[in-house]
Amino acid sequence: MKRTAVAMSAVVLLLPLSACGGDAEAGSGSTVTVTVGYQSRTINTVTAGTLLRSLGSFEKQLNSLHDGVHYKVDWQDYATGAPITAQMTAGKIDIGSMGDFPLLINAARGKQLNSPTRLVSVTGYNLRGGLNTVVTAPGSQLASLKDLKGKKVSTSVGSAADGTLVRALQRAGIDPNTGIQKLNQQPSVGASALAAGSADALSQFVAWPGLLAYQDKAKAIYDGARLDLPTFHGVTAREDFAKERPAVLDAFLKAQAEATEYLDDHPVDAAEKVAKATGLPAEVVYLYNGAHGIATFDPAIKPQLVSALKKDVSILKAAKLTGDVDVDSFVDDQYVKKALGATAYAKHLATKPAPAASEAWPKGASKTVTFPSPSELLRYVAGHRDTLRAAYVPDTTTGTLWFADKAVWVADGSKLLPFVAPDTAQAYVAGHGGAHVVSYADALEQAS
């Protein structure tokens, strides 16, 4: 196999049950509504949301149950994971998808309100943390995290992007509580604040950094993969629903596996489908979800991801968003193991992400062209500037994919090396005598 949200409000309205779990006594000939909460524009959840919905895989799996029940799927689209959690704990959503930090809040809130939830599968992940990025305005003089001291930084408190910011600042010797002016904002609000100059930088999750860079509205100053800590998105289900309707959850997870296989086999087409459903540029979707994109998609709940989830608890506790979270009781892989089959599940657990590669996406093409090195990609770009839709290169040290024309380029002898952010490039230059930063135009000229 190839390859988050604003903190929820402290007040949750307890609404009457009406989701599938509330219809557990439904008999033959009845109609049962299964409610799925997803985030269409948080595109690393597409195999449990946007792409899954567009393929109709879940509905097909439900129709194959032949249990005398007519199933209807109510797809509810949200901007973040917080409202999904609120609706789940109120019994209004059966299955939801969100990022790792919101998943922990989901677990904590479910236990607190006596409506426990369980992590039942994973959607997209990056073992180094590349799904989160800190960006600043295109013309900004800020070039590293150390430059953020005393500055206004927008993020979504309680999200994985905030977790990246906190950890990165700590490593840079900056107190994340007093060293910056943190603005707790939803991604779209933060993007507007960055454009208006009321925020100096923005730390956000997929797909905001890539989108803003693609639109020439931001430039990266920190690649989250430098933390070398896994980030992921996953699927959570209400415990009562999972126990009362195991066949329905099994159908969902089998459908998710189908969507994952489709994304792996048809990455360009999958990106186009997600782009059409979300309004995001397909080039941005592909940056994260493509054949060599930043995210790896696999439903298996890998031990590395569970370990990372446990480490995330301290960040949320420090922000007073949760107390202790029993991660081991929250994680429940029995359902996805059954859906995939024990033998196949074991293979999934052992599978590692494919190495990143340079890619070019020609206009009108249904497939991308892969190159063994960034220099060879640049030679291709130089000769196909008018017929190229997008070009992607992996960061030399972290492997995080980025747009070739937005990357920081370093010339090291005859080698041309790309980096997501200036500090990553400077770290390389400092350790390699003679290496120096060059412009994209100069890199293209040298390559050709």
From TrEMBL:
This protein's UniProt keywords: Signal
Q: Does the keyword GTP-binding apply?
A: no
Q: Where is the signal peptide?
A: 1-21
**Which ranges carry the SsuA/THI5-like domain?**
81-270
Q: Which InterPro entries match?
A: SsuA/THI5
Q: Which Pfam families match?
A: NMT1
Q: What is this protein called?
A: ABC transporter substrate-binding protein
